[in-house]
Structure prediction request, 762 residues.
Amino acid sequence: MRRFAHLLASALVCFFLLGRDAAAPVAAQAPADGDPRFGLVLVPPREPWLGLAYAAGARTIRYQVNWWDVEPAPGLFDWRETDAAIRAYRNAGFEVSVIVHAPPPWARLVGYKWVPNNLDRPWDDPANFWGRFVFAVAERYRGQVASYEIFNEPDLAIYWDGSPAQYAQLLAVAARAIRAADPNATIIMAGMAHWVNPGFAEGVLQALHTMPDAAQNGFFFDISAWHWYTHPDNLTTRTEWVRDLLARYGMGDKPIWVNETNLPVWGIGGHPVTPMRGYGTPAQQAAFIVQAFTNAFAAGVERVFVFRLDDSDMDERFGLVSNDGVIRPGYTAYATTARWLSHARFVSREQVGDLLITTFRRGNDEHIRVIWNTAPQPVAVWVPAVAAQATLSTPDGRELRLTAQPGAGYLLTFDAATALPEESQPTIGGSPLFLVERAPDPSRPLVEMQPLPALSASTAITLTWHASHPGNVPIVAYEVEVRADDGAWVRYTSTTEPRAVVRGESGHRYGFRVMAVDANGNRSLVPPNDTPMAETFIGARLFGRLVDFADRPLPHEPVCLRTACTLTDANGTFAFDTVPAGRHLLEAPSLGVRRVLTLENGQTTDLGALTPPLKGGWLRDSDFEHPDDAWTASTDRPYRLRVPNVGMVLHMPGGSSIGQRLTIPAEAHEPLLRMRYRSERGRVRVSILPLDGVRRAPVVVFEGSGTAGEWRTIVHPLSAWRGTPLLLSVSAPDVGTLVQIDWLWVGENVRPQHHFLPLVVR
Prediction:
């Protein structure tokens, strides 16, 4: 896997040449929300690298899962490394794009290193080892991994020794398996290196095009990925070439990712020590980073990934940061680019003399120009202004406030473009500048929506907004669009009032945006990347704790509600923020905890502490759900009653009691009694009478009272009664009172070990 800066005014000369009054590097100033279009490849899943990647503005990580590491022998899976890495990336705030690669020797087609055996069989045939493995990966990481890339650079012999048609079959099998396991995952055709074997990709497209059911299956991929290194112009010219190539085979609507790009550096340790073709200086790498992202976004590339954050164990120096943590110019260039271009939309590109000027807009009022010199000598140019003031930023993160000269703009000097070693013409533009101005588009109205609550209690959602127009042109209509969950935007209504009521259904997240239309037919802009202007979920929030029977928290345990799962934190706490209204089964599947709940829209429910069934369960009918005459009751017989969101509980009028005989095994580990209760005035008492033939009074192990409506839990050790027959009794001794009890268990408390379960995380 390889792969304007000085001002003429004296104050500006001080800024650029001496660094006085300059802002610190922009690494910590990347947008807080970030932009998934900014990616990095193979970031080590630990600190300080995760923090450095996030601070730079990266929000997507490309990570490789090697089949031979996960399943070294048939059916013998070791997920520990991949589990830890994906968990680390997600906890750090990244979207994860996984490369699935590298078949183990036992699964290979005879005579090949990279081609799996039995690819011609149905994907779910047990003998199609590749299909089975890809399904296992996608099922395990459903909801955690956003996209899967099928192998890496198959147009290079070091990563693939089959034909284009064999790769097409590999891709088709993987696509079927992934869509069966995780229909929401994105499938990426392997990133192509291109230059060594330029006809390989077209051979794959030809093979896919001839498959009988390929068209109805989206040709078995969602994203076309490419690796363009060394020359930033490749991210424009080669992207246009890819788009034409895809269009020839009816796939022209496929988004394009450049999921590897960079310019490796010479002379900073490693290879090479002296100038060499294909390598640049640290300053050239920094200029490359800015120009590559700018060119890619201008060409319509959906995402760009830089290879890589650190040097790792490579002899070549691709890293934006050295292995010992030294920040290189390429890192600050990446962070500066993410600062200014995150969520920015491409507007225009023009060559003005020797300057290449690419214009972006962010929101409705931020006008951003990325400008660099393409000539081999510096140039001084008046750059027209679109506002009275601007922020000027260099790739190293320094910023300066500028005031435009009336009728002229900003007089800037741009560094010369440079050539790479052994090249006669400059291919790296001079150090780019970001010229950022606050300049509302006078031709468009502006709309600001009022925020919505995270949870809506009603299926009728009231939207309100405020609109204005910089040009004072009357606004004649508002167009309201809505999308359910992550679906397509749909026009809901058109109105002349700055409000609307939208009706939805429980269990769905709704996003909204409004476009104002003025009398001239101009429309307001909406946020980039399909971001809603307001959002809400019609449903409920559910949270609680998972503890063992000694009230100790159970961390890192899966808790599931329908198809969504989460893990408890270090305190055993879990939460589901968006739960549809209605009846639900809550489970901790590895512990046997099951609760049935009924939730209403907008409801926030605290379940309190949940505990797994005790091992052994030496009492019968411990939850009072299925009476089987296990309990002996007093004359004032208790009765069972179902309580909403709690289940069946036992009501004990004052003066009543229940009892049951049991024996705690002599070998029991940490035997416990645990019970939930609440009282309407009065006490609850738990007693134990040994039945060993010796006459004695019962031992009261617990006696207490509580506030009406408040459930309490008691836990009492029973180790002293191992091996002894017992009579356990629970009573409400005070006449005229009522005590409710539930989940009365006696059993062995065994703390769970780590469980490896497939999880689905929202």
